[in-house]
């Protein structure tokens, strides 16, 4: 346990370090904003960039004590361990490209720090299982940034399924189309595209690992169902690209439900159109990430119900994860902050020697990360096999 008095642990901000998120990076800045939204966290240090000069540049931009800004994550761990226990970071956020998640998360856990990590969790299943072991043996908190689970209306959708309001789930259609990789912008030095299209940095999945795993995780989070079998077709439409930029998967779930998962980065006109439809024997729901304050509920033969964020009729989890009255939109940053809110509350509970509540434990964890990596590997294997294809009967 990180030391300090209990009164202190009750009132102070938790100290956050970051690896990744240097100048010009995308998601690191989102983490920094989301982490601080509820006033429970302060950023005290980091190793922000693969380039040490840029790491220190970022430290200056964030007005951090230069002594807490490091050339790389190894030096950061070394320096943190030299500090008195009540000055050290409580947790680190890992916001680097995928190939760094495993070594960095493992090293911080083994040094006794809690970890908040970006997805996909690792480069392959082997690393994911190894990380799962480290998390369990360390006893530390590990949160995985499947941020779409943080939306209040997604939490309400999950509650509706659990309450049986949909009856038995029979069909799930989940989609995540984007268009930003329609051209080969990785050759023009576009920072986010260059590593995402390189298997050495992204892993076995391109679009699959980047956003297909969000779709897989969202369907699981809402329905609680696990995939039993799948049949997949991956394509790299853009000439010369090694990893997939388009994903189509048929799913069979353990309870007999069927699913269709589609994600794409070459779908012109689509920005971040993550959406999900779940059909049960008694009702159905539909949610769109680009209009996230609304959840549609259908019962056969009845008018559609549009459930809206911020209202008293929603479940406790939806109400807990909302900050402003209905009609004022909340979205991406707030949902991101909700994952932080629960992971941080769980860390604080541990500092106080208390058990975290069920609501506090509602964040994606290392087990979700293992399933995500298994999903990537199974989809890639299925796509390479011709076992399920039938030539069209002419
Ligand atoms: P990015 O290219 O914009 O930024 C990556 C940053 O990491 C850069 O500053 C780079 O210098 C730094 N970096 C690389 N290796 C490092 C190392 N060894 N030590 C320290 N810093 C290092 O990438 P991004 O778009 O921000 O994506 C980063 C991660 O976040 C990826 O794993 C991605 O899949 C994930 N991501 C998640 C979401 C989400 O919605 N949850 C959205 C975007 C990205």
The second-level CATH architecture of the largest domain is 2-Layer Sandwich
- Distance between the first and last residues' Cα: 68 Å
Beta-sheet strand percentage? Answer: 15-25%
Radius of gyration: 21 Å
In the sheet with the most strands, the strands line up as 7-8-9-6-10-11-12-13
Shape: globular
Helical proportion, percent range: 25-40%
CATH class descriptor name of the largest domain: Alpha Beta
Structural class: alpha/beta
Give the biggest beta sheet: 8 strands, mixed
CATH fold-level assignment of the largest domain? Dihydrodipicolinate Reductase, domain 2
* Number of DSSP helical runs: 13
Please write the string of helix (H) and strand (E) elements.
Answer: HEHEHHEHEHEHEHHHEEEEEEEHHH
Provide a quick synopsis of the model:
The chain is an alpha/beta fold. The chain has helices spanning 6-11, 27-36, 52-61, 73-82, 101-110, 125-138, 152-163, 191-196, 199-202, 207-223, 316-320, 332-351, 366-384; strands at residues 14-20, 41-47, 91-95, 114-117, 142-144, 169-177, 227-235, 246-253, 258-264, 275-280, 284-288, 294-298, 305-308.
């Amino acid at each position: 346990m990180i030391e300090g008095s209990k009164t202190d642990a009750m009132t102070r901000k938790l100290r956050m370090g970051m690896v990744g998120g240097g100048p010009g990076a995308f998601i690191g800045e989102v983490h920094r904003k989301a982490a601080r939204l509820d006033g429970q966290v302060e950023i005290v240090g980091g190793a922000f960039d693969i380039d040490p000069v840029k790491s220190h540049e970022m430290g200056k931009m964030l007005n951090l004590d230069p002594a807490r800004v490091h050339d790389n994550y190894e030096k950061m761990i070394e320096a943190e361990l030299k500090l008195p226990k009540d000055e050290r970071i409580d947790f680190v956020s890992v916001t680097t490209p995928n190939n760094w998640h495993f070594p960095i998360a493992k090293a911080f856990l083994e040094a006794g720090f809690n970890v908040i990590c970006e997805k996909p969790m690792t480069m392959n299943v082997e690393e994911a299982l190894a990380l799962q072991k480290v998390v369990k043996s360390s006893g530390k908190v590990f949160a995985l940034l499947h941020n779409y689970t943080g939306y209040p209306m997604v939490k309400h959708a999950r509650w509706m399924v659990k309450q049986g309001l949909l009856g038995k789930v029979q069909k799930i259609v989940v989609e995540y189309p984007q268009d930003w990789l329609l051209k080969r912008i990785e050759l023009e030095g576009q920072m986010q595209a260059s590593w995402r299209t390189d298997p050495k940095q992204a892993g076995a999945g391109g679009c699959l690992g980047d956003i297909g795993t969000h779709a897989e995780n969202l369907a699981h989070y809402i329905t609680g169902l696990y995939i039993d079998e799948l049949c997949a077709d991956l394509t790299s439409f853009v000439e010369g690209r090694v990893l997939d930029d388009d994903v189509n998967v048929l799913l069979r779930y353990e309870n007999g439900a069927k699913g269709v998962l589609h994600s794409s980065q070459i779908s012109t006109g689509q920005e971040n159109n993550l959406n999900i439809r779940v059909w049960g024997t008694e009702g159905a729901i539909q949610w769109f990430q680009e209009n996230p304050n609304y959840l549609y509920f259908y019962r056969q033969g009845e008018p559609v119900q549009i459930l809206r964020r911020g209202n008293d009729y929603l479940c406790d989890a939806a109400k807990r994860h909302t900050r402003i009255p209905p009609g004022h939109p909340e979205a991406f940053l707030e949902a991101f902050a909700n994952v932080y809110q629960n992971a941080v509350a769980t860390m604080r509970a541990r500092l106080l020697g208390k058990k975290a509540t069920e609501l506090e434990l509602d964040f994606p964890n290392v087990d979700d990360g293992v399933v995500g990596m298994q999903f990537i590997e199974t989809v890639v294997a299925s796509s390479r096999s011709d076992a399920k294809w039938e030539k069209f009967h002419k």
